[in-house]
Amino acid sequence: MNSDPYAWIEKSLDTIRRAHWYRSPQKIDNCPGPTVQLAGRKLINFASNDYLGLAGDQRLIQAAIAATQEFGTGATGSRLIGGHRDLHRQLEKAIAKLKQTEDALVFSSGYLANLGAIASLVGKRDLILSDQYNHSSLKNGAVLSGATVLDYSHCNLNNLTAKLEQNRTNYRKCLIVTDSVFSMDGDLCRLPQLLGLARQFNCMVLVDEAHATGVFGASGAGCVEHFGCTGEALIQVALSAKLWEVWEVTLPALLL
Ligand SMILES: Cc1ncc(COP(=O)(O)O)c(C=O)c1O
């Protein structure tokens, strides 16, 4: 055997290019803001998740500089083994206060938060009911958990109810998983109704507020607040991933 085990890569890339599906990152030449400087052109950025403009906010930039000067640029290892700074705890308390939840746990990205949260809530003998348009991190978290995963039609409560009626009793725990603001279409899940079904069928609910935190609700706490569901039993993946990258370093520094 002298074939090249990597030869398939070029072939696949060729196919992707011929189908005009090839994508690669574009170089942006300016600081974060409503417009981007791309290949010498100034363009409005409709692809950003920096909804509140925090990534370029001078107060946060200065706080980030101060925080890294005092605490360094990294945690140096896993938090459970190497410990954490009071700064991390302060951030978690600030998030829990904003969300009016019992507590909060910080991850280094939204993707990891979904993987970690879902895999710690359900396992092999359990069931996940997942909106078909959920973000890929929710879908991959569901696979990683080892639970049986059933997709229900997008925002379709009748379809979800039918799947619960057919399957719920065959499993130990059940988790209903949904984006609150769907990342591709921008529509909202029907949270009060989902919570009603969860009560009826003894299920947990996990809602991904990545595109809702800071945007929806009177205090910016997200869709949970917008729908009047604050204080209900549910798990929220809270901060916008993109807000988060800024807040991770800077919010604690502002609190100091
Ligand atoms: C709904 C949703 N959840 C999770 C993520 C993942 O967040 P991150 O990019 O911080 O890993 C994204 C990414 O934008 C998202 O749109």
What secondary-structure arrangement, pairings included, does this model have?
Elements: H1 7-18, E1 35-38, E2 41-44, H2 58-71, H3 79-82, H4 86-99, H5 110-121, E3 127-131, H6 136-145, E4 148-152, H7 157-167, E5 174-179, H8 191-200, E6 204-208, H9 223-226, E7 235-237, H10 241-255
Parallel strand pairs: 3-4, 3-5, 5-6, 6-7
Antiparallel strand pairs: 1-2
Tell me what the structure shows.
By secondary structure, the chain is of the alpha/beta class. It folds into two domains: 7-44, no CATH class; 84-255, Aspartate Aminotransferase, domain 2, CATH 3.40.640.10. The protein is 41% helix and 12% strand. Strand 6, helix 9 (223-226) and strand 7 (235-237) form a beta-alpha-beta unit. Helix 4 crosses helix 10. It is globular and about 55 Å long. The chain starts with 6 loop residues before the first helix and ends with a helix. The relative contact order is 0.14. The model is unreliable at 241-256 (pLDDT under 50). It binds pyridoxal-5'-phosphate. Residues 49, 109-111, 114, 135, 137, 179, 183, 208, 210-211, 241 line the site of pyridoxal-5'-phosphate. The site of pyridoxal-5'-phosphate has 13 residues, from helix 5.
Number of helices: 10
> How many DSSP E strands?
7
CATH C-level label of the largest domain: Alpha Beta
The main pleated sheet reads as: 5 strands, parallel
Low-confidence stretches: 241-256
Helix coverage percent: 40-55%
Mean pLDDT: 90
CATH architecture of the largest domain: 3-Layer(aba) Sandwich
CATH topology of the largest domain: Aspartate Aminotransferase, domain 2
Strand content: 5-15%
The succession of helices and strands, N to C, reads HEEHHHHEHEHEHEHEH
Return the structural class.
Answer: alpha/beta
Sequence of strands across the biggest β-sheet: 4-3-5-6-7
Instruction: Give the number of domains.
Output: 2
In CATH, the homologous superfamily of the largest domain goes by the name Type I PLP-dependent aspartate aminotransferase-like (Major domain)
What is the approximate shape?
Answer: globular
